[in-house]
Design goal:
43% of the residues lie in helices and 20% in strands. By secondary structure, it is an alpha/beta fold. It has two domains: 37-142, Response regulator (Rossmann fold, 3-Layer(aba) Sandwich); 144-266 and 300-326, Response regulator (Rossmann fold). Helix 7 (206-218) crosses helix 8 (231-241). It holds the Pfam family Bmp.
Length: 339
């Protein structure tokens, strides 16, 4: 009787230990960290090098604080030689979702994704070749055409000379999408408007931006747009010097042009990346396609500065265009009318 009881007790204790171990073990898809979903964003540049990246970093930290079920990490990979090793290290560490940035990291993303088919990879504006054949990579990006369309509406409503110009950083896809939206927006409210496009071929040269801005003003453009990063600061300086209106991208330029700014097409990278994470976690992950996050998702907008000289009529036109875009009543081509 005593031997039977001892065997029963040992069996019961063994079963209890197995149940305890099973309960403490990692769950499938959890990255080996209990119930937490592990997410990594890999940046090709240092966080302190760009305001948008600093905003993204802080936004992800705030989001994780409100979502303890997630573990979110931002990793810097500032050298080409670091791209694949750092992405691969995250995959080896059991991350569930890995997001890479821009076409710089496209090759590294594809290489690692092939070796880790169960991990969900996201590529922010990666221009992944043959994306439709990638089984675990989803590309995503901001809608540049939507906010540029609104900027064009503002310019089309406010011009007095019926001629406007824009300084683009370079003759590349993302900038040309901006130019396309800008041109279509202005023509939606002012069909006879004339616009001039110039490319700086640099995003970091304010002197070049000012030179081009002054040249546009010399061609009777009374409104200048600047989609050129740091080069755009120079275009804004030209507008301020000649008392011309200015339309900005990414940030506001009130400190340069004061109340001459008609508004800025601003982007919220943190909201875009968070939306992607929520889609990936919530069962809306769609590998092999490119997803665009725009006005409707709150990932971008066109903002007026307080005290702006934009007329009430122009503001109303912008608001009507915003509503039409979010309701799907406007189709915007990503191809410029001209360059």
């Amino acid at each position: 009787m005593k031997k039977q009881f001892t065997r029963f007790l040992c069996a019961a204790l063994g079963a209890a230990m197995l149940l305890a171990l099973a309960g403490c073990g990692p769950k499938e898809g959890s990255g080996g960290d209990g119930d937490r979903t592990k997410v990594a964003f890999v940046s090709y540049m240092a966080v302190d090098q760009a305001e948008w990246l600093q905003n993204l970093d802080q936004g992800l930290k705030d989001y994780q604080s409100a979502h303890p079920e997630l573990e979110i990490k931002l990793v810097e990979a500032t050298q080409t030689s670091e791209y694949e090793p750092k992405v691969r290290a995250l995959a080896d560490a059991g991350y569930d979702i890995i997001i890479t940035s821009y076409d710089n990291m496209a090759a590294a993303t594809v290489a690692v994704a092939k070796d880790f088919p169960d991990i969900k990879f996201g590529s922010m504006d990666g221009a992944i070749p043959d994306l439709e054949n990638c089984k675990n990579i989803q590309e995503f990006g901001l809608s540049r055409t939507e906010t540029a369309y609104l900027a064009g509406v503002a310019a089309g409503m406010m011009t007095q000379t019926n001629k406007v110009g824009i300084v683009g950083g370079s003759d590349v896809g993302p900038i040309n999408e901006i130019i396309a939206g800008w041109q279509q927006g202005m023509r939606s409210v002012n069909p006879d408007i004339e616009d001039v496009v110039v490319y700086a071929n640099t995003f970091t040269d304010p002197t070049k931006g000012k030179e081009l801005g002054l040249a546009l003003i010399g061609k009777d453009c009374d409104i200048i747009g600047g989609a050129a990063g740091g080069t755009g600061v120079g275009a804004a300086q030209a507008a301020a010097e000649k008392s011309s209106y200015y339309v900005g991208w990414d940030v506001h330029y009130g400190d340069v042009v004061g109340d001459l700014e008609l508004g800025s097409a601003v982007n919220f990278f943190d909201k875009m990346v968070i939306q992607f994470i929520e889609d990936a976690v919530g069962g809306k992950y769609t590998p092999g396609v490119r997803t665009i996050y725009g006005l409707k998702e709150g990932a971008c907008d066109f903002e007026f500065l307080e005290g702006s000289k934009v007329s009430d009529e122009a503001k109303a036109a912008v608001e009507e265009a915003r509503k039409a875009i979010t309701e799907g009543r406007v189709e915007i081509s990503s191809e410029p009318i001209h360059k």
